[in-house]
Amino acid sequence: MPILNKDMTVCISLAGRPSNLGTRFHNYLYDELGLNFVYKAFTTSNIEDAIAGVRGLGIRGCSVSMPFKEAVLPLVDVVEQSAAAIESVNTIVNDDGVLTASNTDYEAVADLIARHQLDPSLSVLVRGSGGMAKAVVAAFHGAGFSDLTVLARNVDAGEAIATKYGYRAVSTDPQPGHAVLVNVTPLGMAGASAEELAFTPAHVRAAETVFDVVAFPAETPLIRAARDAEKPVITGAEVIALQAAAQFVRYTGVTPTADQIARAAAFSRE
Fold first, then answer.
1. Which string of b and e fits 127-163 if b means at least 16 CB within 10 Å?
2. pTM exceeds 0.90
3. pLDDT, tens digit, 9 for 90 and up, residues 121-160
């Protein structure tokens, strides 16, 4: 990486629980591609001031994670369709003070549904109702899945997401039997909820595929339980690699190769 200098372009992330995943991913590629960029993770107790800082300091790109994905919507100038459709932002690009918001989470999840060849006839249970849950449900809807249930403690939020796409919502665990389980909550994330399972062992045993969007750690309790039950898994590490690669292109205008993305993703998890 170049020595810090006055001409260096700065990109950041804003998250309730910052990790080194994005920092290592982006800085690895800046170094490999010889770009005069640097990336730093932050949290904030005042999202309005943080976004004002992005604008005022000329920060080129800003990745947005829980719990700020919806709160930033009124703070930007342009909202692309990928974010407007699900009212959730994970990427902000600053062009000379004009902030444009998009959502590469949706793109990443849609890509993974296709890569893992999930059958649209399968039943899906999505746990969560935040910004990432909106991206996940929208991606499954776009892939042609008709049987999906949103499980959310926030009844109103769960109902809103489900109703938008013609799905059902519940606030308590349904009976095991859904073929695809998707965790879109902080359960299993490093921190206070690190040891919690997003779904019961019975749900995991009854499933055909288990998908956990939590990226840190890559091997969450849910993913470990699914592997122990010999179920195919889709991990948050896969999601973050794809969405971060899409962000990288937006920030830099440079498209890394698949091998470079894979190496950066592996480095980010070390």
1. bbbbbbbbbbbbbbbeeebebbbbbbeeeebbbbbbe
2. no
3. 999 999 999 888 999 999 999 999 999 999 999 999 999 9
Out of 69, 134, 164, 231, pick the active-site residue.
69
Q: Where are the domains of the chain?
A: 9-103+238-268, 117-231
Examine the pLDDT at 1 and tell me if it is beyond 90: no
Cis (ω within 30 of 0) for the bond into 217?
yes
> Which runs of E-coded beta strand occur in the chain?
9-14, 37-42, 61-64, 78-79, 91-95, 98-102, 124-127, 148-151, 168-170, 180-183, 209-212, 233-234
Q: Is 231 a catalytic residue?
A: no
Q: In this structure, are residues 14 and 44 in contact, taking their beta carbons and an 8 Å threshold?
A: yes
Q: In this structure, which topology does domain 9-103+238-268 adopt according to CATH?
A: Rossmann fold (3.40.50)
